Amino acid sequence: MYKFLVCTSLSSFAVVSQPRIVQASLRVQKDGVGHCTKVPRNVNMERLQNHYLFYEISRRKLEHIEKYPNAKVISLGIGDTTEPLPEIIASSMAKYAQALSTPEGYRGYGPEQGNKELRKAIADSFYQDVPVKETEVFVTDGSQCDISRLQLLLGSNVTVAVQDPTFPAYIDSSVIIGQAGDFKDEAGKCGNIEYMKCSAQNNFFPDLENTSRADIIFFCSPNNPTGHAATWKQLKKLVDFARDNGSIIIFDSAYASYVMDDCPRSIFEIPGAREVAIEVSSFSKFAGFTGVRLGWTVVPDELLFSNGFPVINDFDRIVCTCFNGASNIAQAGGLACLSSEGLKAAESLVHHYMDNAKMLVETFTSLGLEVYGGTNAPYVWVRFPGTKSWDVFSEILEKTHIITVPGSGFGPGGEEYIRFSAYGNRKCILEASQRMKTLFS
Q1: 283: closest CA among 380, 150, 139, 379?
Q2: Tens digits of per-residue pLDDT, 124-138?
Q3: Are 260 and 230 in contact (CB under 8 A)?
Q4: How far is 325 from 236, CA to CA, in rounded Å?
Q5: Which of 140, 236, 308, 434 is the most exposed place for a label (fewest CB within 10 A)?
Q6: Which of 297-319 are b and which e, b meaning 16 or more Cβ less than 10 Å from the residue's Cβ?
Q7: Contact 150, 297 (CB under 8 A)
Q8: H or E segment and range at residue 120
């Protein structure tokens, strides 16, 4: 069994306080700095946590580096890719960028919906056996950006349901747009959001029979943070639930390329999904585009609002109003990704990270820990019973110089868990595994 080390000496353990949920005040500090306008602060911003989860992780990492400047810090925290871009992809972007310096190669604004050739390539590559049309594909600068655009599309008068634990951007964007209500400290939840518990006890899929109706259902598979990929049977239940309740599913398939078994990679593999779902996805984790920024959203023609108006028409208006289109250079890289050589290179990156995940799973399993994920996603979800996840995060950081992510940062359902990312070079993963064995043996 594992041993959770508790340090009582302040000299041997850096006390890192848990982030608190705060209500920001409109009180003005009377220190003579700045100028107070008559513009009130957006009250929804006051309902947000003090910092976005991954900003908080980065802040604590910097504090730790300042405290231990000679330590070799290994990041298994924020899911940022680490391996170089495949040469075919990088050279395609470089060639396009260089051509911009010539009269023949210069291009300015492109279609807000994306390069037509790339839209077709996405439909052909990722939806080969699924009826997705290129005109339903909107090329963007990433799925997280699209989550906020979809929130703008839907407005503040809809109700929202999320998996618990869940990717924090779904909740934070719901708070900002005005859907979430006040945060309830005792429950660790926003009052107007339906939290669908997804734990090992229910195979990481919500009990839909006891789930209240919501207009919008955010659902991520493979899931961040648990690493669970929903089965066809599970997603069929979700689609039927949405159809019965007149809801819209926003399906996040950013990690679809990591599915190694027969679990669906797209919600549109499920019959009837075109009438109840929108899908957002990304090149970030598939091809290492976390810094390049490229993604897409699929809005089917059959998806209608309650008044019969096509959702795709309004999303097109949102895109045209709020977005000038993805970078032409990034889109050139996207086309290279979807060439036969590019797909093979991207698949090699995915397998590298999944081999890392396998090593982490083996490490924690050997320590007698309760381990999930790591088979269809680059995240390993490890339980530390009877603990607070921020305490475990701090203990691991202090004793091993390894950055992780506390499970409670993904919602109350993540308490007692730590998420370990498999994004890293092999040497770092091996070193991290050895440090964890030393700590918990």
Answers
A1: 139
A2: 999 998 989 999 999
A3: no
A4: 33
A5: 308
A6: bbbbeebbeeeeeebbeebbebb
A7: yes
A8: helix 116-126
Inform me whether the pLDDT recorded for 24 exceeds 50: no
Question: What is the DSSP pairing of strand 402-403 with strand 74-75?
Answer: parallel
Write down the residue that tokens 């790591």 correspond to: 374
- Identify whether the C-beta of residue 303 lies closer than 8 Å to the C-beta of residue 275: yes
Question: 3-state DSSP call for residue 2?
Answer: coil
What is the pTM assigned to this prediction? 0.91
Strand partners, 379: 421
Helix (H) or strand (E) holding 216: strand 216-220
Q: What pLDDT, on the 0 to 100 scale, is given for residue 197?
A: 98
Q: Above 80 in pLDDT, residue 340?
A: yes
End-to-end alpha carbon distance in the chain: 8
Cα(373)–Cα(371) distance, integer angstroms: 7
Residue-level pLDDT at 37: 96
Half-sphere exposure of 148 (CA within 13 A, CB side): 12
pLDDT tens sequence across 194-204: 999 999 999 99
Alpha carbon distances (Å) from 53 to 24, 57, 162, 356 = 17, 6, 17, 24
Q: Which two tokens stand for residue 346?
A: 């991207």
Return the beta strands (E) in 253-340 as ranges.
277-282, 295-298
From 432, 428, 408, 433, select the one nearest 418 (Cα to Cα).
408
Say how many C-beta atoms besides its own lie within 10 A of residue 36's C-beta.
Answer: 9
For the chain, the 3-state helix, strand and coil shares in percent, each to the nearest 5, are 40, 15, 45
- Residue 27 φ/ψ, nearest 5 degrees: -65, 135
